Amino acid sequence: MNIWIRGGHVLDPDTGRDGIYDVLVADGKICQVQEPGAFSGGEPEGGEACRVIDGTGLYVMPGIVDLHVHLRDPGFEYKETLATGGLAAAKGGVTTICAMPNTKPVTDSPDRIRTQRERAKKECLVHVSFVGAVTVGQKGEVLTDIAGMKKEGMACISEDGKSVMDAKLYKKAMETAAREDVLVLAHCEDQNMIQGAVIVNESEYSKNLGLTGVTNVVEDVIAARDILLAKETGARLHLCHCSTRDSATMVRLAKEAGVSVTAEVCPHHFILTSRDIPGDDADFKMNPPLREREDVDALIEGLKTGAIDVISTDHAPHSQAEKAKGFGEAPCGIVGLETSLALSMTELVHKGILTPMELTERMCHAPARILGIDRGSLAEGKCADLILVDPDREWVIRKEDFVSKGKNSPFDGRTVRGMVVMTMVDGEIVYEEA
Ligand code: DOR
Ligand code: ZN
Ligand code: ZN
Question: Ligand 1 atom 1: the closest Cα is on which residue?
Fold first, then answer.
């Protein structure tokens, strides 16, 4: 069915539209975007066959493109599946997911890419771009068939969860990525420096808990290395989950020097610090860990200036039993698909740090451009991946309300302002607030 959204506030960085428009969705595409009442006869052609939605007071945005998601399927279906991850994405306004390869088996071959893509088309409500591993089994020893995976529709490569510590091998991967025009998503973490440590920032808190934590340099040395490798090889590099002030600075300087680098930050890293960890609660344990005030300030500044291009989630569901093991033993990761827009609206837009249009750029348009997909736009003729957002609706994040299997969120109980009320993928409504 065609859909006519009347009088919503369109936010579209691609066309620059930032104001009240009528939007007609037909045959899965953005068919017309007009000033209200500009359709001849006050109605678009075929208007009588439309479902009409009153967009008054709502933002009409391109669907969110989340460059960093763990779907856990296959291998860890008790944490999340393609289906439950898709439901969570739709509810959070995310219409395209980049799925990281650390599943079991690892997504590390053309065959795995093909199988996963075929499954996702059937099982997941939203678009999934699969990320191929850099090394076979993510073991850091043998490079994967990057060209072969690309032929099967792989979106980009990443060793997320760790870094490839052999710089010679990683350089070779980057040379291939440059040749094949494949984006490299980098999880920056020196694997030697974390030996014997718990992933928590070294602070008063970690000392009080008797934990040996890690410091910013664990991230920073690899961020520096990877930027230099990108400079030398010409590969397109995207730094995952930047969490330190120095990584933000390095990205800015590298861009100024003309290196092909982009970066993302996750809501938890620009909202929380290690001081917010309430006790031995592993719902606050993620990798990289929560940092300090100066880091948060630098990340927010990076988002403001555009030195940091993208907000992604690093949605990393784990079971409640796993998280109950406490900070020392529990796996790293928190869920984010259902809360990222509301948290970003609350902390960035309502506090006057980003305009609604800038937020749309960071969450919808920039990630699509970096990934090289023809989405993240509400221009006429584009696929109708679109969300309706009530910018002022207050609600309380409750983990029991999540449709994701993961309930591991440090934001449980937090009041936020901004709610996704409808999500469309290729013109089909995949989520609608009850
Ligand atoms: O917190 C994290 N969780 N960081 C990662 O890099 C991996 C992820 C996971 O797979 O659980
Ligand atoms: Zn990571
Ligand atoms: Zn991750």
Answer: 333
What element of type H or E holds 88?
A: helix 82-92
| Residue 184 to residue 427: CA distance in whole angstroms | 31
Residue nearest to atom 3 of ligand 1 (CA): 333
Q: How large is the average pLDDT for residues 70-92? A: 98
Backbone angle region of 321, left / alpha / beta, with phi > 0 → left and psi within -120 to 50 → alpha:
alpha
The active-site residue, picked from 314, 385, 390, 426, is: 314
Residues with CB under 6 A from ligand 1: 70, 102, 160-161, 187, 286-287, 314, 316, 331-333
Q: For residue range 307-343, what is the model confidence (pLDDT) as tens digits?
A: 999 999 999 999 999 999 999 999 999 999 999 999 9
Mean pLDDT of the chain: 96
Q: What is the pTM of this model?
A: 0.97
Per-residue model confidence as pLDDT tens digits over 383-393: 999 999 999 99
3-state helix, strand, coil in the chain (%, to 5): 35, 25, 40
Q: Which helix (H) or strand (E) covers residue 356, if one does?
A: helix 356-360
From the CA of 241, the nearest ligand is 2
Q: How far is Cα 333 from Cα 342, in angstroms, rounded to an integer? A: 19
27: left (phi over 0), alpha (psi -120 to 50) or beta: left
Q: What Å distances lie between residue 346 and 101, 395, 415, CA to CA?
A: 31, 11, 9
Identify which ligand lies nearest to the alpha carbon of 287. Answer: 1
Helical spans, DSSP H, in 257-332: 267-271, 293-305, 320-323
The contacts of residue 381 (CB under 8 Å, 6+ apart) are: 29, 30
354 in Cβ contact with 309 (< 8 Å): no
CA of 424 to the centre of ligand 1 (A): 28
Q: Whose CA is nearest to atom 4 of ligand 1?
A: 287
Pairing of strands 261-265, 237-239: parallel
Q: How many CA atoms lie within 13 A of 240 on its CB side?
A: 29
Distance, in Å, from the CA atom of 411 to the CA atom of 69, rounded to the nearest integer, reads: 18
**Distance between the two ends of the chain, CA-based, in angstroms?**
20
